[in-house]
Specification:
By secondary structure, this protein is mainly alpha-helical. It has nine helices and no strands. It folds into three domains: 27 residues, no CATH class; 90 residues, Uncharacterised protein YqeY/AIM41, N-terminal domain (Hypothetical Protein Yqey, Chain: A, domain1); 52 residues, Arc Repressor Mutant, subunit A (Orthogonal Bundle). About 8% of the residues have low confidence.
Length: 189
């Protein structure tokens, strides 16, 4: 509300031709929309783009993501908070979706269902478009060492705090199963 009040004051403070006012209004609105683009907004725009392009595979995968996101939003609602979940939770949710699909691929390949395995691989490719670039092993090892040092961890008992710090800082950027193994190896040995 305060943004629009300042917008109103800025637009109508001086006598300006109407064309300039509308130009300023749209320029201001576009700047707000580009700056505040969340992952949720990017998903909705990607769905519209897939509909326009008639990309059935991408559209189906994006609809699955949005359905799961709605389910997570509903599960996290409280009386005080009616907003949706934050981007870091969305990234974690999408990593969970990738993990589920990887498990399904293994089962489909064991059952000689290459068609279903290919469909799952295509969905993984669409989901990964929205995730930040994944860390390589050397960057992950460095992040694990930094998190252990920051948490002051000395034994396996401190592993939970280290993993919580990693998940808070690197959501969507690292494979936490590999990170957990690296933390365990570092703290144990």
């Amino acid at each position: 509300m305060a943004k629009f009040a300042s917008l109103f004051n800025n637009l109508f403070a001086l006598p300006i031709p109407p064309q300039t006012i509308s130009f300023r209004l749209f320029r201001y609105w576009d700047a707000i929309m580009l700056r505040d683009k969340s992952l949720r907004d990017r998903l909705n725009e990607a769905m519209k783009d897939a509909m326009r392009a008639r990309d059935v595979a991408a559209l189906g995968a994006i609809r699955l993501i949005l359905a799961k996101l709605k389910e997570v939003d509903i599960a996290s609602r409280t009386e005080a908070n009616r907003e949706g979940v934050a981007d870091d939770k969305i990234l974690s949710m999408m990593q969970g979706m990738i993990k589920q699909r990887n498990e399904s691929i293994v089962l489909y390949e064991k059952g000689n269902r290459a068609d279903l395995a290919d469909k799952e691989k295509a969905e993984i490719a669409v989901i990964e478009r929205f995730l930040p670039q994944q860390m390589d092993d050397t960057a992950m090892q460095a992040a694990v060492k930094d998190a252990i040092a920051a948490a002051g961890a000395t034994s396996i008992k401190d592993m939970g705090g280290v993993m919580a710090a990693l998940k808070a800082r690197y959501a969507g950027q690292m494979d936490f199963a590999k990170a957990s193994a690296a933390v365990k190896k570092t703290l144990a040995g």
